[in-house]
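Lecture notes, part 5. Sequence design as translation. It can be helpful to think of inverse folding as translation between two languages: the language of shapes and the language of residues. The source text, in structure tokens, appears below.
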């Protein structure tokens, strides 16, 4: 049986098995004393733990780590002669440094609250607390500085202050417990342990033990509780506890640790060897995981936290255990792999570092000792290439076993050596922690008293996200589920967001056990409700839109009021009837040049009334206009004309040969001879900037532009008294709104002078003197406009629209401070009918960022990952546009 257990142990670790003799059993070429392992097995079985518990036991994994070190003999932890100045352990140094840097705070508190009902002997409890503090030196150690460096000072028992504070529970016992748990320790002068007894009645108490992490770790709680229980029972009988002396104290471990690691400058030392491994394992590690936070990271550290319960049901737990066994791994490895995949699906990339603690108790002498032995390892998971989940699990297993073989190097030494960019509000090397608790669970046992553990308020956040789970097993050893919490930084996440992350983790685990051979991109992290919200609820509402063209919209307004002023440019005014008459005359001329539907007509003109006439005329023929700004570089103009091969180029010299004169009375003459234009014919061809390659001509049909213009009118409601400034160069699609929105509503189009769009002083004067009510700015020009003091006098504005660039929140706030006018943020790529989403900037002025908003009617927008799958809310992806607003495609 012992041999079989050793073989199972080898299989779990994935190592070859070779028998040697009755006393030794060789694993992977390294000898392991069989009796040591069998001792562990028997101990585990005696407390009815499963074999899986055994193999996740940190002490046993410590043995595995040592098997990776051929020919090396680790020194035993023994009682050592103490120097005059006792140093801190490496783990303690980091906590001491953080305490000095941030000031005393509860970030590293370990509280434990227990409700005690029954006849409690307070004096016995007081004496028992004294007993355990005497037994475990770490509990009576303070950390004063000596010549600028911290040292351990173990206080004599007679120098200790009273350990137990007794206080009435009060009306709000929960709040009193929370406040007591969060009260900081003064580490330089007060021991890192205190006890408070809240009394609600003669037989009703709550005992709160608060320890600082510098003196205790999770494993320590079991021996601490066992010793306190034994001491209380003895004191109730008037005796001192009769327990075996501890073989070593924490100070001995501290001195041993230095001997174990040696000088990192010595290439043959453990410190040097392990540091070399970690340098390679963490080379080019991402500085920060880009998590789907609700707020930017604050400049200063914030430990404000929240806590979400995590629960994995028994059936899923059973399947996780089965999967681990099938893949020769552990439940821990499966869970860590799943968390890495979740972070990948949350937009964190394919290089995922996760922190995880190891107990650090690799010597029997430390098993029953209270102290801070835990170390933190960084497990880096490569998720590139869309691997299957089982492939990820294999990668995690390989990394984890290698990490365990190099677990002695203190985390703070690793950080010091790698020297990542330090940000006060960000944990170095990793921001997500994962813990699978496998510490022994020992309940407080006081004679004649019932002890019931109580939850303590969420502890301060040390990481952005901190996942902690523990396995439950039934009386028959069968998996009974996993319980735990997700502790999150409230400075970064709303509770609802954290709940969503917790839900997705549980959902991903179900998907993993259902089919672990799926590619990680196929594992479902969206619930049905969220999927419906993303694909249906949040998409633009379908509405009925008349089957019309841009020229139809304009001509309908001409019919309503042909005498209204349609256009102003300097001293020139054109009525709707006059503008229509000139456009009709030119359209008939163009059809005489065989221009018709699906043709492209290049227009190379400066801003002027003639430009508007030409655009309308081209649209009336069914052709698409191609804007060619005369200010474009000659190379770009030549490229566009060569690529588009227009049927005609209209410039100033060509236009001079055409008679555009006419009155509103002949505006309809000859329109019956113009081609029939339908909404699917192209309205314009707009070239992209070419910032991601060669410029491409985008073909945009009437149908999408009409849908957009009718929405603009429905949403913002231009009046016939409105005056819209046309200042955007017509090579940008935003100009389409400035040209055609006012001309379909009876408003007046006010044209800026050529080049005027570059001059904020001129623009402010035009807006004020020409009584402009609606204007558009790209954010950079809005900034320049607001820099002019005269901008504040543009009080006739009713709407200001922004698009074309990201709108900074600070700029929106400044705008509101200068002008009391609604500011609207819109977004759209050239490949759509100008804009596809919209939002109105809030009035509060405290937005962290300005959203691009929601989709327009008949438009759908999706944020998708690289596999064209919807990403969860808050996760970065690429924006995809669908619906009537989509362009027909690129020209040719």
């Amino acid at each position: 049986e012992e041999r079989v257990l050793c073989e199972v142990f080898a299989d779990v670790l994935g190592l070859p098995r070779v028998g040697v003799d009755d006393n030794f059993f060789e694993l992977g070429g390294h000898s392991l004393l069989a009796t040591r392992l069998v001792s562990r097995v028997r101990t585990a079985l005696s407390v009815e733990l499963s074999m899986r518990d055994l193999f996740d036991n940190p002490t046993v994994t410590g043995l595995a780590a040592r098997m990776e070190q051929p020919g090396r003999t680790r020194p035993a932890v023994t009682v050592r002669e103490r120097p005059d100045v006792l140093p801190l352990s490496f783990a303690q140094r980091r906590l001491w440094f953080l305490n000095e840097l941030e000031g005393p705070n509860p970030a590293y508190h370990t509280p434990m609250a227990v409700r005690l009902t029954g006849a409690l002997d307070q004096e016995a409890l007081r004496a028992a607390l004294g007993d355990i503090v005497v037994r475990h030196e770490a509990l009576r150690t303070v950390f004063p500085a000596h010549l600028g460096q911290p040292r351990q000072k173990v206080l004599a028992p007679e120098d200790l202050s009273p350990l137990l504070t007794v206080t009435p529970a009060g009306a709000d016992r929960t709040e009193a417990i929370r406040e007591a748990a969060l009260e900081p320790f003064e580490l330089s002068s007060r021991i890192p342990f205190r006890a408070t007894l809240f009394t609600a009645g003669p037989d009703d108490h709550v005992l709160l033990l608060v320890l600082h992490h510098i003196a205790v770790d999770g494993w320590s709680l079991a021996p601490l509780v066992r010793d306190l229980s034994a001491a209380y029972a003895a004191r109730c009988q008037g005796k001192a506890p009769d327990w075996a002396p501890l073989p070593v104290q924490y100070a001995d471990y501290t001195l041993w640790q230095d001997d174990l690691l040696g000088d990192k400058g010595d290439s043959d030392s453990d410190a040097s060897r392990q540091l070399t491994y970690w340098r390679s394992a963490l080379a080019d590690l991402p500085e920060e995981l880009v998590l789907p936070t609700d707020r930017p990271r604050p400049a200063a550290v914030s430990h404000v936290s929240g806590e979400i319960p995590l629960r994995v049901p028994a059936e899923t737990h059973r399947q996780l255990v089965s999967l681990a066994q099938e893949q020769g791994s552990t439940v821990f490895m499966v869970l860590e792999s799943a968390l890495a995949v979740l972070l990948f699906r949350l937009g964190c990339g394919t290089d995922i570092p996760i922190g995880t603690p190891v107990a650090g108790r690799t010597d029997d002498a430390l098993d029953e000792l209270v102290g801070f032995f835990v170390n933190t390892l960084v497990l880096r998971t490569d998720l590139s290439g869309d691997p299957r989940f089982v492939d990820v699990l294999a990668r995690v297993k390989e990394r984890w076993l290698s990490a365990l073989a190099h677990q002695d190097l203190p985390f703070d030494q690793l950080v010091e050596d790698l020297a990542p960019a330090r940000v006060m509000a960000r944990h170095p090397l990793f921001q997500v922690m994962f813990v699978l608790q496998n510490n022994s669970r020992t309940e407080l046992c006081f004679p004649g008293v019932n002890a019931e553990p109580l939850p303590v308020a969420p502890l301060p956040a040390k990481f952005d996200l901190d996942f902690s789970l523990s396995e439950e097993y039934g009386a028959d050893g069968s998996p009974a589920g996993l319980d735990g919490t997700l502790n999150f930084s409230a400075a970064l996440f709303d509770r609802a967001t954290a709940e969503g992350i917790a839900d997705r983790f549980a959902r991903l685990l179900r998907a993993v056990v259902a089919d672990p051979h799926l590619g990680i991109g196929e594992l479902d992290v969206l619930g049905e409700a969220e999927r419906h919200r993303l694909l249906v609820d949040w998409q633009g509402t379908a509405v009925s839109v008349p089957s019309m063209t841009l020229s139809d919209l304009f001509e309908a307004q001409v019919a309503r009021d042909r005498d209204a002023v349609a256009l102003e440019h300097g001293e020139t005014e054109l009525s709707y009837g006059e503008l229509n008459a000139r456009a009709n005359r030119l359209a008939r001329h163009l059809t005489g040049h065989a221009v018709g539907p699906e043709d492209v007509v290049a227009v190379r003109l400066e801003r002027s009334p003639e430009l508007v006439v030409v655009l309308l005329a081209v649209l009336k023929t069914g052709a698409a206009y191609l804007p060619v700004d005369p200010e474009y570089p000659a190379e770009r103009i030549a490229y566009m004309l060569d690529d588009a091969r227009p049927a005609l180029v209209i410039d100033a010299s060509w236009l001079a040969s055409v008679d555009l004169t006419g009155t509103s009375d002949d505006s309809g003459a000859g329109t019956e001879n113009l081609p029939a234009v339908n909404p699917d014919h192209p309205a314009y061809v707009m070239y992209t900037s070419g910032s991601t390659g060669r410029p491409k001509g985008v073909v945009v049909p009437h149908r999408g532009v009409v849908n957009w213009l009718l929405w603009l009118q429905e949403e913002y409601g231009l009046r016939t008294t409105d005056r819209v400034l046309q200042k955007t160069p017509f090579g940008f699609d935003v100009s389409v709104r400035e040209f055609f929105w006012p001309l379909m509503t009876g408003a007046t189009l006010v044209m800026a002078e050529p080049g005027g769009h570059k001059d904020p002083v001129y623009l402010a004067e035009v807006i004020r003197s020409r009584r402009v009510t609606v204007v558009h700015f790209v954010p950079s020009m809005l900034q320049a406009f607001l820099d002019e003091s005269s901008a504040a006098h543009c009080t006739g504005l009713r709407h200001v629209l922004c698009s074309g660039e990201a709108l900074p929140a600070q700029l929106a706030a400044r705008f509101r401070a200068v002008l009391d006018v609604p500011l609207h943020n819109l977004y759209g790529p050239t490949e759509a009918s100008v804009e596809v989403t919209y939002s109105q900037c809030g009035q509060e002025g405290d937005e962290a960022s300005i959203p691009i908003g929601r989709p327009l009617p008949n438009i759908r927008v999706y944020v998708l990952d690289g596999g064209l799958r919807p990403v969860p809310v808050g996760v970065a992806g690429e924006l995809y546009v669908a619906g009537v607003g989509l362009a027909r495609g690129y020209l040719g």
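The translated text above is only one of many valid answers, since several sequences can fold into similar shapes. The radius of gyration is 37 Å.
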